[in-house]
């Protein structure tokens, strides 16, 4: 019976979340009979299981709700806001009772007559407003209780079947290994059997990982209700749209982002979206829009919350910062617009004119940000004053397997999440200068000034003064979006993916550690929390001279072409590659390289990958390889040596033909070839087949310019160029037609979009579809926009 | 089960642990220190694929951290969803005790009175009953 009740609780809770949002959607469109049927079924199911489990109080409540819904279904009553309110109140009551049941306590003695009466009244009186205090107390108690109950998870049966099959496979593979061992077959048979066992284990690990995944729907489904209640309280009209609710995320992660997300939505509705009257005066539709979208990008999940409200008034923000003495006047005057916007994350700051029940209590965006950063995520703002605010949350896919860097300090090994690490340098690098200023160390790395601390000092360890550790390694850490520091460690050991588990509360309490992990050597290792280390070093309490510099660097990065890695090819020449594409540099044992299928291939992580840049197996015992990545696919590129990191100039002269070399950059006086990473990956994965490409008609004189200058550009933008004369009949559906020259052709004949290329600058921009023939950016922009329309 | 107690030695003194809280008793070969953690944390050790926190029971009594002797026994307990190893000098026996528990004498030195819960009698000998919850999180000292 207990099992049944547990199941009922889990199921009902899920149902209730979904039910609340369905009800809200139905209220907006009462004629939607399909939705009403769905709601009716939900309530009916709850009622059925309550009756079965002999829970009379639940049954009474759900029965009353069902009655009312049935009346609406039969057209005897109208769906009105009070009616939906009453049904929602019933659902809330059921939810409260469920929480009580879950903790194993007796159900409180009170009747639900008031709620049931409200359901049956035609025009319900406003619900009695409970005292603020009364709401707050049960909520916190419920929360504490909820944490105490057993955590359960619902997993699709298919996945369990898959796991079951995996376990059987694993047992078979184990038996095979056992047989080989018994028969003392040590050769390839044993190896093969062991390979199979390893593959099975890897597969099982993935499957188990999937059981932890959950759709983000779980936090999206209560949102319509939240938005409805908030906008009703504040007298605003908000249209909520969510997308990407099928994105999957680690269960633990979902719990962690629930509160920050709710907070951002509250802010949006309370401060962002204006009242209907105010919106009318500024010429916006009375109903504000709130879009929430989730999508996966690599091993990150992006959640975007955008509204069309008034955005953030940075002037007001600065004034508040001054009033609250968070910044002084001289600090504020020098701040860039971006830095001003960042003030919203300062503790104790709010732009609300008055504190309302919903938000603006001073626990604000700083808490949101620290919560997001604690789980290795980040938060970005895009502010359009008067037109809206877009908040972008980035969180890692899972908390359990984290790419880490292992470092040594004081003779002990530690792990650091790689997401926080920007760069690793030796302290004898000419780009690094360490200086003491007033008793604290500062590191200047390529002109950027960072606080410099030794990991041993932070952890209270003795600095190991052995001779081979004279050169220390500096890890530049990005603990939070505006908190960077240089951490000195004895050595960086490796880069590996570690399964991280939370440590005991006594260890985590310090804030220095984010968890524990067990690497292959069987010695437990601690995962450092970069933010906790910064707190220990009291870094965030220092004024940040870094801020301005950072902005300067940021704007510089926009002007130039970003960082590039300068390296020496095996053939001896110097070349450049965009740093963003290089994941890491590794010296591999040449024994792991082999000639196969006409390529040099490396066996890595249980697969074989082609190495670019090698024609034969190298003679040297070690080969330096660049691991390139486009976020999903890995590529390997053999080099002789890595020389330096340089900044690319804003203009790279493009190569005449697409190929390995994308262009030539001028670094100092040297002309250095820049690799085309795009080409490398397109070669690896194969280019899109020409037949799938949309057709672009080039109409004009069949001259050399059209054929050899315009056509390649159109092809490069992903179209199949078809050159034709104006009098030719045009067959085939064209996505875009380009009319070359100022020909008098009636554009009505063409399907799709028509662009006219004018010979002279003067006649260009006569209308929106006329572009000067050498306006490369303008033309490409149109072509790419056309592509996107095609694929959409 | 409720009347079973694990008899172990902390700082040379024989004590009793409530057996319903105990998962197993293991031998700890090596542990990894946790820098700048509370002094009663001896370190971390691996038990198959799990990482456990090793608690130095002796520290509560003597105030001196114990040196881990490879192979020293630790009592594995699970408290609040986390597993800990309580490092003791020795594990002697598991014995049923049915006599009523006696309250702690008031003159007990601070260390013992903090980790002790009550007194038990076994074969004419009086033993201190140890409270594992206090050891893994001294901050949540019972309000009493």
Describe the structure.
The complex is a heterodimer of chains A (792) and B (144). Chain A folds into 6 domains: 147 residues, Four Helix Bundle (Hemerythrin (Met), subunit A), CATH 1.20.120; 55 residues; 145 residues, Histidine kinase-like ATPase, C-terminal domain (Heat Shock Protein 90, 2-Layer Sandwich), CATH 3.30.565; 154 residues, OB fold (Dihydrolipoamide Acetyltransferase, E2P) (Beta Barrel); 126 residues, no CATH class; 102 residues, Rossmann fold. Helices cover 39% and strands 27% of the residues of chain A. Chain A contains 23 helices and 35 strands. In chain A, the strands form 7 sheets. A 6-stranded mixed β-sheet of chain A has the order 10-14-15-13-12-11. Chain A has a 6-stranded mixed β-sheet with strand order 27-19-20-30-29-28. In chain A, helix 1 runs antiparallel to helix 2, helix 1 runs antiparallel to helix 4 and helix 2 runs antiparallel to helix 3. Chain A is globular, with a radius of gyration of 32 Å. The two termini of chain B are 27 Å apart. Chain B is mostly beta strands and 144 residues long. Chain B contains 3 helices and 10 strands, in the order E-E-E-E-E-H-E-E-E-H-E-E-H. In chain B, strand 1 and strand 2 form a beta hairpin.
Give short descriptive properties of this protein.
heterodimer, A: 792 residues, alpha+beta, Four Helix Bundle (Hemerythrin (Met), subunit A), Heat Shock Protein 90, 6-stranded mixed β-sheet, globular, B: 144 residues, mainly beta, OB fold (Dihydrolipoamide Acetyltransferase, E2P), 5-stranded mixed β-sheet, 3 helices, disordered C terminus
